[in-house]
Fold this sequence. Notes:
The protein is 30% helix and 28% strand. It has helices at residues 13-22, 54-62, 76-79, 92-98, 101-110, 124-134, 161-168, 222-239, 272-275, 280-288, 314-318, 348-361; strands spanning 5-9, 28-33, 46-48, 66-69, 87-88, 118-121, 138-142, 152-155, 173-177, 183-191, 197-199, 203-208, 211-217, 243-252, 255-262, 301-308, 323-327, 337-345.
Amino acid sequence: MKLSRVGIVGAGQLGRMLALAGYPLGIRCMFLDRSATAPAAQVAPILTGELEDAAQLAALAGASDVVTFDWENIAGSALAPLEKLTKVRPPRAALEVSQDRMAEKALFSELRIPVAAHAAVDDEETLRRAITKLGLPGVLKTRRLGYDGKGQFVLRSLAQIGAAWAAIGGRGLIYEKFQEFSREVSIVGARSATGQSVFYPLSANTHGGGILHYSIAPFVNRKLERAARIYLKRVMQALDYVGVLTIEFFVVKGRLIANEMAPRVHNSGHWTIEGCVTSQFENHLRAICDLPLGSTRALGHTAMVNFLGKMPDRELLLAIDGLAFHDYGKEPRPGRKLGHCTLLKGSTMERNSALTKVLKLIEWS
Length: 365
Ligand code: AMP
């Protein structure tokens, strides 16, 4: 059966870029979101309602050949009934694993993918025990619903336990040993239902306050790239994955330590729109619509810079040669991802000097 109608739960910027990638392929996306003015609703039809509303989800599934999501925190139990109505891709199991940092780390460990030493924390006593066992510094995080550094507290001394507990204390936490990383990198790949898989070059990511500020790609390091591909492939195979999957890593003493996975297109893969033969958005659609996957070959050297909290001066940025501008159509709010730009250059030197120029014109708030 030809799959051309894609239902997407959540209509954020990821959904918007998926919809835009779908048009040239003859793929039409339809969304479900609370807001009729969400970024994707500006470019494609939308059903409005709560993301976990059973009737609206069923309506979306009824109008779609395949259902996917741009937000991974939707409850698996809300998606389960849709599996009787249509295809749900990526598989629900991937979504559920990625929603719980303990489950995610258990899967990585089972697949022999290194992770930071960690322990579950449910009260101050288990936090004290975790610190005694794993040492300081460490990061206390919520196991669920954490993203972009939200729900995290870095502990450097025992005296901070009270403050950490006041900030994010409660049940369902995880304490991780702090990783003294030299870099953060991520790998994005896609797998089809027939088991075909493709992998993008590594991206090196710089975060501020837990949120991605900018990425450079390809980040060339054969040894790390080989390991990242092997790890991503293991996860894809274990979950019988269909669609785009991302894993973020810390590089510690030249080795990869997996931090987390995202069962969807990823911010650190936005550079692929201009920087690769086939973007992550197109390959996600190709994968979930049973189409052959496209080449992930890089076309040059790129940098992707997020616009956070405030849109930069469009005219000044567009005057930079090789720059592509993306406005997600969102209302500014501190820390909110409002857009990004990508620089595509012929050499790392040109890319780096253009990136320096861009960074002078961006203010993250
Ligand atoms: P996360 O929400 O787990 O992706 O964390 C957001 C960011 O916080 C990461 O990209 C890192 O920059 C930082 N971070 C998270 N966990 C750790 C850790 N165990 N050690 C050092 N930095 C961390």
